[in-house]
Write the structure tokens for this entry.
Amino acid sequence: MSKEKLQSHAVQTTGHAWDGDLQEYNNPLPRWWVWAFYLTIVFALVYWVLYPAWPLGKGYTTGIAKVTYVNSKGETVTTHWNTRADLMAEMNAAAKAQKPYYDKIAALPLEQIAKDPELNSFVISAGKQLFGDNCAACHQAGGQGVVGLFPNLTDDDWLYGGTLEKIQETITYGRRGFMPAFGSVFTPEQIDQLANYVLSLSGEKVDAVKAQAGNALFHSMDAMCFYCHGDDAKGRQDVGAPNLTDKIWLWAKVPAADTPEKKVEAVKTVITQGLGKGVMPAWKDRLKPEQIKLLAVYVHELGGGK
Amino acid sequence: MQAGIEEQSALYEKRIPIFPRAVKGRFRRFKWGVLILAYSVFFGLVWLPWPRHDGPSQAVMFDLVHRKFYIFGLVAYPQDLIVWLGLLLFIAAALLFFVTALVGRAFCGYFCFQTLWTDFFVWIENLIQGDRPKRVRLYKQPWNREKILKLGTTHFVWLLVSFWTAFTFAAYFTYAPELVRDFFTGQAHPAAYATVLILTLTTYVAAGLGREQICMYVCPYARFQSVMYDPETLVVTYDEKRGDGRMGRAPLRPGAKTREERRAKGYGDCIDCTLCVQVCPVGIDIRNGLQYPCISCGLCIDACDGVMDSIGFPRGLIRYDCEVNIKSPAPGKPHLHWKRLKVIGYGLAVVVMSALLVHSIANRSDLEQAVTQVRQPLYVVLSDGQIRNRYQIRLANRSDHAETYALGVRGIPAQAADFGNFQEVTVKPDQSILVQVSVKLPPEAAMRVESFEFTITPRSRPAEVHVSPARFYGPHS
Ligand code: SF4
Ligand code: SF4
């Protein structure tokens, strides 16, 4: 075909013709599209300059954007932009925002902290965090503990005392609870009697005759149970001996037992084997004093304190 | 051929420049009135001081960072604002429909930001380059000193106005005097610079370069308003019967000067001076009938009324009138047709929603409380066998003074609830406080009681008792 004929269309072609009349239209891209494309190129260039982008063997281009933060050693670090440094900088900012509260906590006596509505609100929210990070592994997220392993902090029974000061002391220095094993000291029958007596103290259904014998044993110089648990069996907080007359059980898995026999069994197990695992670690080297103070108030409020 | 390609790939038709002529008249005066009012509010309000015991002393400020919105004596929070904004949007929409059904695109012509800013920009253009004939000449003449100077100055002033518009907008979101200082010393937040930059550019482009194109191609409202037009809607119309007559329009010339002469020859009243076309900011000829780009600004009415006055013909060749009237054999005086179901419906919606909004603002509580139950553990058995549940109460004081709240319970004995140190708690303005409460019930009561209520009473308004329901869980529930 003649050249004129080929180009007589309204649309421009690339000017090539194959097989006689096969042509290619020359339809340019819309202008806005082209500009948008150029813009993405510019964006990419700016990005390369600012942020980490290109791999270079073992390293990479770091870009000129910088983040400054204070690391755990207290050194001010300035590094190329990356999400981790960004996070550190944000954490620092958060810690800074908490500082005035912690300063106040450090300066005030425990009672005052619990009485100041603003500080107390901070204790409730920050305490939850701190407790979750440090204490919840044993005492559970809500402080409810695990029967037989870790004490419940939300009830009103305190082995070592539930005042603010006592709780602070417990967290700071830790505790070590111990009860000797009586399995080799007493006959199985005596242990049975003791268990019945101990259960009777909490108002459980027991064999009255056995319980009476257990009572005698409890207060005898042979067993010396009263030495730790007290004459009235109400325990001694200075040695961490539990009150046996309340309805709260930590070591003997009484709440989980559904029959009187199983309850007796649960108490017998404790008397026979004794206890050496009531260990609460000391936190004085792991937490700052004001953090411990805050936790003391928090824990005190979990259980209503004493 | 090249032109053919251009046409195919171009996104829009090349703009035909419009040089609106300045005009005097009622609608022009009304437009200036609205513009001055709107500008004084927008540019002035942000500088109005408003003493507050805390927070900024600025009458209107939207503090996004602290999520507080100061509107004169009112401090609103996002949760209020969601409701109020919803209502406000609804009212605005209903009002728009109401007005459109009555008088067409009145919003477009007099109140729209695009119109206001374009109007002002054209005024600047007019001031620097002269009126329409001069601007047309300037446009056509080759680039020389005069053209560069005049156009350059115009664009420079436009940019200044755009900048101040953008800056003012940004100042609504932070304490304005502080922003001025920080902005010009390079210490303002990057977001402030970004906002100002973007808004400066968009204002400049929309009001300086885009103008009527925004109304015609960008604005979505222009596209659906025709739905709201009725034959009874008042719109800017050219009275074709009167203007064109039997034989069409004719310039004033000997033998066709008075109305009687023109009647006799069959000519209408329109003397084809094209002033109505020259003043039109969207560049249309209203004599071709109602067209979608017409923004109802009424400037053509002003222009034609002026012409009619000068030649001693009655006014109103171009006027606000409705289709029914204009088309009727014996047109009456134009008037508002408000006795229509649609108009009354929209009107009612506006009134009801406005009442709701006022009620909602007036009855906003100064206290925001939330009671949450501590669910870990759900309940605790105490040493004496009692069952204890624990709750957290959050009290947020939204008033402008410190308030003391007395806490109490209903539905269980008062001594069952232990509020610790906070039976009464004082909360500073704009602060919130968490209070822990433990509720202790003997086992029998714990089995019976499933729910009760907390009461929170502000000391300064003992009659205003806020009640929050709570549940009680025991071993058997
Ligand atoms: S036709 Fe008249 S009312 Fe419509 S936009 Fe133009 S000047 Fe304004
Ligand atoms: S201003 Fe009036 S008289 Fe002049 S052309 Fe327009 S309609 Fe006709």
Q: What stands out?
A: Residues B 236, 279-282, 284, 286, 294-300 surround iron/sulfur cluster (ligand 1) (CB under 6 Å). The first helix of chain B runs from residue 2 to 9. Chain B touches chain A at residues 1-2, 4-5, 8-11, 374-377, 380-385, 388, 390, 392, 418, 420-422, 425-428, 431-436, 438 (CB under 8 Å). The first strand of chain B starts at residue 60 and ends at 63.
